[in-house]
């Protein structure tokens, strides 16, 4: 009998929650509440289903519920921007670049952020991600397209430090 | 980009970055990119951003609390319990079925179906049995494929927990194979018979408990008569007349009660 590995999904759930809430403490609350709700509604898990996608969907739903009930707080979250804890001891250039990318990502609208996170970070298929978020496949794909376009734009407008240093030879004229 | 009609869209490029394409489509996208350096540069930059995001968001979870892990454990245990419960429910349903079979046996005499019952959809193992039988027919023509005609029903039962029916005296065993399947070992016996020709008898674990009376599933040239007693299903596969196969299956089934 294969065991359900829920503890092993905690990393995934925390990452997703952090991308949604943009705050470590809120993310932890969200994951905890999602696990409590999952426990209450464990009957809704389809046998043979993907436990990770099921849990990510619960995290997503609780987050959306909270957004709706706490509009004013959502504005605060919107302003708070960056997640506090720093990660990855990388070289100076890299960590600057990484925090810019993360900042750009976290400033995306929630719907684009969640779509891109599930696919690019958690490696879900478009179909699975669409089910987690509860939108049609086409909607998910257009959100990902818009998220990428926005990131590209930010990169082009990013401060000098993040710009590529190579120039095309002969571009000077 | 130029105005020529191009089947590779922006959505394809996103799907490429997200690793959502099959290899054939990847090759098409890569051919498209190879001819368009500026699009390729954009895709490379998207790939870079994706990888950087993975690193940037992978950081440690400073605020992780033991209560969350405990909630995860509780859910894990509950779901494991739920599964055990489902198995028990299935076993209970099976017990009801067996009881019903017993009762039917008592009322209608030994379960003996004489007419051919056309079932709506034969179980999946029937198809496997037919396929395996075809392989046996191929093996028959290959002298290099050694056969193992030794047949010891007790040994099979000891090794696989499958009770084999007693075979009629005029059935000559050609080959016995034990092979793995999803729900435990299964057995195939190839038999030479007088009235049915070369026949394969399968004992398979279909993965669920059931009692099925001998039923015929005819297909093009090869027919199958199958029945199930408890956890083991039996299938008799051969070229012979479907009615005769059914008859043989019925006789075999009787030896198991």
TrEMBL record, chain A:
Gene3D superfamilies, per the entry: 1.10.1740.10, Winged helix-like DNA-binding domain superfamily/Winged helix DNA-binding domain
InterPro entries in alphabetical order: RNA_pol_sigma-70-like, RNA_pol_sigma-70_dom, RNA_pol_sigma70_r2, RNA_pol_sigma70_r4_t2, RNA_pol_sigma_r2, RNA_pol_sigma_r3/r4-like, WH-like_DNA-bd_sf
Domain of life per record: Bacteria
Pfam families the record matches: Sigma70_r2, Sigma70_r4_2
Domain RNA polymerase sigma factor 70 region 4 type per the UniProt entry, residue ranges: 100-151
Alphabetic keyword roster: Sigma factor, Transcription, Transcription regulation
Domain RNA polymerase sigma-70 region, chain residue ranges per copy: 12-71
Family, similarity comment: Belongs to the sigma-70 factor family. ECF subfamily.
NCBIfam families from the UniProt entry: PRK12511.1 (NF009164), sigma70-ECF (TIGR02937)
PANTHER family assigned to the protein according to its UniProt record, in alphabetical order: RNA POLYMERASE ECF-TYPE SIGMA FACTO, RNA POLYMERASE SIGMA FACTOR RFAY-RELATED
Protein name per Swiss-Prot or TrEMBL: Sigma-70 family RNA polymerase sigma factor
From TrEMBL, chain B:
Annotated organism of origin: Mesorhizobium montanum
UniProt-recorded name of the protein: Anti-sigma factor
